[in-house]
Amino acid sequence: MKKISLILLIVCISITFLLNFTMPEFAGKMKGNISSMNILYSYSVIKSFSEQNQDTVEMASVPSGKTQTRSVDFRNDVKLEATPLNIKSVVKESLNKPQNYKSKEKLTGPEKGFSYRKYYLTKNYDKGRYTVIRTNKITGKEKVYAGTYYEPSSQDPIVKWSRDEK
């Protein structure tokens, strides 16, 4: 049985290398899916939330009685720390999906009595630790990986707000 599994593994790897040379566009799609195909390894991912982090950016400062139009386009993406390349895609599959934010807004200055209005965007991240257990299907050996993740918050990934100042 182990001999058949080893032969099957060699055939799959050979096909992948062959595709890299003959059909690179198809091989690129396959390459991203190899970890999810689980040919040689099985993966178990455990996440543990620890806190919420914020990244606030000032979009504009509009004086009293003035109006400005601003375009905003960014992506609130997953961040991983201490993550080897061979398990990055496995960890990302278990995290929240990236959040795209695109907006074109007309921003107005404050009422009388205030000098200007500042507009902000806050990107909220859930921070935690992950543990990945990779098990070799042929030998049964396990390897443990651990690191830190930041994923877009599931409740409020992006919050718009403003503050009037004198």
User: Based on helices, strands and strand pairing, what is the structural class?
Assistant: alpha+beta
Shape descriptor reads elongated
The low-confidence parts are: 25-36
Helix content: 25-40%
What does the secondary structure layout of this molecule look like, with pairings?
Blueprint: H1 2-22, H2 24-37, E1 41-63, E2 67-76, E3 79-81, H3 85-93, E4 99-108, E5 116-136, E6 142-152, E7 158-165
Antiparallel strand pairs: 1-5, 2-4, 3-6, 5-6, 5-7
What would you say this structure looks like, in words?
By secondary structure, the protein is an alpha+beta fold. 27% of the residues lie in helices and 52% in strands. Helix 1 (2-22) runs antiparallel to helix 2. The longest helix is centred in the N-terminal third of the chain and has 21 residues, at 2-22. The N and C termini lie far apart (77 Å). Mean pLDDT is 84; it is low at 25-36.
Short description:
With 166 residues, the chain is an alpha+beta fold. It has helices at residues 2-22, 24-37, 85-93, and strands at residues 41-63, 67-76, 79-81, 99-108, 116-136, 142-152, 158-165.
Question: What attributes characterize this protein structure?
Answer:
3 helices; 7 strands; single chain; 166 residues
